[in-house]
Amino acid sequence: MHVIGISSQAAGHKTLLPALKEELQKQGSNIVIVAGGVIPPQDYDYLMKETKCCSAVFGPGTRITDAALETLSLIEESITE
After folding, report:
1. Which residues are within 8 A (CB) of 33 and not within 5 positions of it... i.e. 6 or more apart?
2. Spatial contact of 33 and 53, defined as CB atoms under 8 Å apart
3. How many domains does the chain have?
4. Residue 48 buriedness (CB in 10 A; 0-12 / 13-18 / 19+)
5. How many whole angstroms separate alpha carbon 56 and alpha carbon 3?
6. Which CATH number characterizes residue 27's domain?
7. In this predicted model, what pLDDT tens digit does every residue of 41-76 receive, in sequence order?
8. Please, are residues 34 and 66 in contact by the beta-carbon 8 Å criterion?
9. Is the pLDDT of residue 81 over 80?
10. Residue range of the domain that includes 20
11. Closest listed residue to residue 48, CA positions, set 34, 64, 69, 61
């Protein structure tokens, strides 16, 4: 299983993440996508629920261990699906 982590610093997350997800789906890929950086909290639902282009968003201040554990959990979930 693979994971792509995207760090958004330039406010392109609402365009780039859906485009990435679409391209991966075209190729039949089941890669887990997670995002981080300076993504405004009000955009989290858009990315994870509305467009479903990423499985998790890790905002500023997220502890690395918390992000790692959640990412590992997402990998396990995707394997069992």
Report:
1. 3, 4, 5, 6, 17, 20, 21, 24, 53, 54, 55
2. yes
3. 1
4. middle
5. 11
6. 3.40.50.280
7. 999 999 999 999 999 999 999 999 999 999 999 999
8. no
9. no
10. 3-80
11. 34
